[in-house]
Amino acid sequence: MKKYDEVSVVRQLSKVGSIVGINTVDKVIKIAKNGILGNGTNGKIDFLTHYCGYHLIVIDIIQQQKERDEEIAAKKAAKKAARKVAIYNKNKDENTIEGISRAVSKRMRAIKRK
Q1: How far apart are the first and last CA of the chain?
Q2: Strand boundaries in the chain, DSSP class E
């Protein structure tokens, strides 16, 4: 077995694309489900899990992306609904006497400019 150092191994593994994240405080390594890892990377993960007390978690990234996309779509829908309510409240004000007189005076100013 090679002699590894925990800090240098964590630094090297943080640069690997298939590894989603390494939490050194909780000692957790998150790996993508369909990620491709080489022999050296597997050896370093083995060192961290067996000798340093890290736990390995395999994550399905595609499922997480779908959930994140659903959250974003829900936020956009809520923002769009709030915008419609704001426009409705703005237009609602135009149906009162003050709103009508304001619209008439605005129209008269536009005619005078021409």
Answers
A1: 88
A2: 19-23, 28-32, 55-59
Tokens matching residue 57: 């978690």
The dihedral formed by the CA atoms of 15, 18, 22 and 27, expressed in degrees to the nearest 10: -130
Could you give the CA distance from residue 26 to residue 23 in angstroms, rounded to a whole number? Answer: 6
- Token representation of residue 105: 């005076």
List, in order, residues 6 or more apart from 94 with CB less than 8 Å away: 100, 102, 103
pLDDT in tens, 49-103: 999 999 999 988 888 788 888 888 888 888 888 787 766 666 665 566 666 777 7
Other beta carbons less than 10 A from residue 61's beta carbon = 15
What is the β-pairing status of strands 19-23 and 28-32?
antiparallel
Closest to 31 in 3D by CA, of 8, 48, 51, 6: 48
Q: Which two tokens stand for residue 40?
A: 């050296």
Asked whether the whole model's pTM tops 0.70, one would answer no
Rounded to an integer, the average pLDDT of 6-20 is 88
